[in-house]
Amino acid sequence: MSKTISGFSKLSKTQKIDWIVNTYFADFENAKNILIQYWNSDEKLQQLHDEFIENTITNYYLPLGVAPNFSINNKIYTIPMAIEESSVVAAASKAAKFWMERGGFKTKVISTTKIGQVHFNYKGDKQKLKQFFKIVKPQLLIDAKSITQNMEKRGGGILDIELRNKTESLANYYQLHVSFETLDAMGANFINSCLEQFAKTLKTEALNFDLFSEEEKQIEIVMSILSNYVPECLVRAEVSCKVDDLTEKNIEGNAFAEKFVQAVNIAEVEPYRAVTHNKGIMNGIDAVVLATGNDFRAIEAGVHAYACKNGTYSSLSHAEIEDGVFTFWMEIPLALGTVGGLTGLHPLVKLALEMLGKPSAKELMQIVAVAGLAQNFAALRSLTTTGIQQGHMKMHLMNILNQFEATKTEKEILSKQFENQTVSHSAVVSAIKNLRSNH
Ligand code: MEV
């Protein structure tokens, strides 16, 4: 059977599934059953999900967990996290509790400006283009009025439009570099609509600009799109306490703080480590971004670009000990929304936002940054003390036991047994077999 098809998008959901299972699966009944198993019995809810994207055939579940006991600027939160990786939610909860007892997280939104660009080609006199831009700038704002007026009423809108000459990097290449304030909306639609309007105005007004030659009048728009690099949409999260207060049963505060700072310093200077270090931060960030219906790809792209802002990929977080006080902090760009997009559509996203007390975008930036910092703290704490595998292996053990449908008693016996034994798949399997044959 041909593995290609035309007109796939026109087929009904059932027809799509039939084609897929018949084309790609030996046991097509089983494949179909798995797909259908994940449909929601509530038809309206299912239709809602079907319509989020195109060619939907089923739902792909991710667990939604919660990490309680976060104190952020003295307000208590339980943070929802959608993530498939075990240990992340546990680590976040542990870090939350640890810092709750030491003053909690302190956060601050530094700036909220977002950027969009109209990329265009212009072949001609640069001075004339500058003159043209000066004249056309008010018109750009007037023509975008129908798009911007509601945002302006709420205090947001277009902050500035700059003409940028990029011809030293690429022949004939210029930009309208536009800054926006989009308040509680992530703002992608708003920004892109404004930019497309600017592009139209730019093109048509150039045709009427008398100083331009015929060739100069032919401004060529390449594209108009927001930027996911948002170094001016920045939030800071921090924890701090006396080094002595870091002391716990098997950990001496001063030694721990010094090793912790050393681990952060390594991530600051060594890109191989920085990537993994930042990945740990993104474990926390993405999970909350996803749970709150935001675009985690945009966040990832922007955050990693920010991690190289000085020319080398480096740690997003920083730590120091000064006068006996340990401080651990991070400043990251987060363009988030709490209105628009999925936030008003997805029932679980609405629930997650309500759990957080219906935050503004600014408040959500702070919560998300804290989730990232907490995750990073938990990872570094494990890595510099017990090692990461101890916790992971406990989860690994549970996963294997679940695969073997272990009973509660079996789980208890084997968890105890593996406290003093290295967890490996084969060791666990033989332990289950042994236990079962003895009973
Ligand atoms: C695993 O998902 C994340 C860590 O590797 C982060 C880190 O190494 O800092 C534990």
Automatic annotation (TrEMBL):
Plastid found in the keyword field: no
UniProt GO MF annotations: hydroxymethylglutaryl-CoA reductase (NADH) activity; hydroxymethylglutaryl-CoA reductase (NADPH) activity
SUPFAM superfamilies (alphabetical): NAD-binding domain of HMG-CoA reductase, Substrate-binding domain of HMG-CoA reductase
The family this protein is said to belong to: Belongs to the HMG-CoA reductase family.
Alphabetized CDD domains for the sequence: HMG-CoA_reductase_classII
GO biological process: coenzyme A metabolic process
Keyword NAD tagged: yes
Known catalytic reactions: (R)-mevalonate + 2 NAD(+) + CoA = (3S)-3-hydroxy-3-methylglutaryl-CoA + 2 NADH + 2 H(+)
Name under which the protein is recorded: 3-hydroxy-3-methylglutaryl coenzyme A reductase
Organism from which the protein derives: Neotamlana sargassicola
Enzyme Commission identifier(s): 1.1.1.88
UniProt keyword list: NAD, Oxidoreductase
InterPro entries linked: HMG_CoA_Rdtase, HMG_CoA_Rdtase_bac-typ, HMG_CoA_Rdtase_cat_sf, HMG_CoA_Rdtase_NAD(P)-bd_sf, HMG_CoA_Rdtase_sub-bd_dom_sf
Pathway field: Metabolic intermediate metabolism; (R)-mevalonate degradation; (S)-3-hydroxy-3-methylglutaryl-CoA from (R)-mevalonate: step 1/1
Pfam family, one: HMG-CoA_red
